[in-house]
Amino acid sequence: MSEIFFSCQPIFNEGQNHWGNELLFREGQENKFPSIDEDTATSRILSANFLSGKELDDSLRYVVSFSEAALLDEIPFSIPVKSLVICVTAKCNATPMLVKQLESYQKAGFTILGESDVFTSRWQRHLHLFGVVRVSMATENLSDWTEGIANYPDIRFLASKVESNEEFVLAKQLGFSLFQGYFFEQPVIKSHSDVAPSVISLLDACIVINRSPHDIDEITEVISRDVSLLYKVVTSANILAKSKKKAITNPKQAVVYLGLESLRRLISLLIMSNMNHQECSHLQNAAILRAIFMQQAGPLLNDLDPDEAFLVGAFSLLDAMLGVPMEDVVEKLSLNQPAKLALLSRSGPYGDLLELCKHIEHANWDWVGSLCEKMALRERAVLKAFEKARYQTQTLAATMQV
């Protein structure tokens, strides 16, 4: 588990109502530029805020800067359209390929934000792409923008670096409709806990998706090897499927719903985000052991879905990985009620199986025997399934070391 730090600076409308937040990656509690590359910073912001199960305010927009490479890789498509404002950085060139890509984002419904230099660079021919243009009061005379504001009624102009009520009133009189600066609120450094898939898991997933794009079972299997990758995939599917009546509750469902292109984008984002993160290996191995055991032992009981059993085992240590109460984890996962009960209180059939696994791990053989009797399971068959799961986990762990 790692802490992702970021600066959160609010953006307000004319009535000083909260319109959105700009998110910028930081390496700690100091509000200064990080020493990592732009793509890694962006991907960590996206992973920690949109793919960690954190509940974002649906009424707000979140401004995130993207490099040209990230935009061409279609990384923004991993994030819900109504939540994300794509900020095109000054380093991005108005190449035909990038212009075409931005047109696809606009068509999909994303809001695109550009800096003031879009009016004086090659972007000037493509101003129709921008829903918001930001102008800094620290470096520019806002009065110079009255003609542009009048000529482009479809663009919302954002005045940044607003530091006094007089500047706010002036900007509003000149036609600006969005505002950002110390007059309203200083940036706040926040942090979110995030759990990172291993690099090898991500690369394996890339290989399988490209080698066997139509083999859903194989893709699901390779994603399920790494509990944090599985968590990201299921979380992403549920975020993008908010309109669905039934929650996505098992690995195969998530893979099918996302589809190949969304999976490729998600894994590309995670690779950029997590290349330097190798925490939680012990907990991940323990969770995968539980997942494999529960999947294999599930058929020994009536009415237990093996995929759901795998998910319960895989997610049973996420509270320790993320450093948050299991109640907070379960609230974000949209699991079926029996799975929720298992994770929260070790109750129900999945909970009994999880409890049985826990006692085997701790060699509490009296409890193992009594639970097997309660569940009408043969103790020998259960222990054989656990040893098989342990062997498979050790094999996976050996192949996943970087």
TrEMBL record:
Source organism superkingdom: Bacteria
Domain HDOD: 189-381
InterPro entries given in the database record: dGMP_Pdiesterase_EAL/HD-GYP (IPR014408), EAL_sf (IPR035919), HDOD (IPR013976), RNase_Y/CdgJ (IPR052340)
Designated name of the protein: Signal transduction protein
Species for this entry: Salinivibrio kushneri
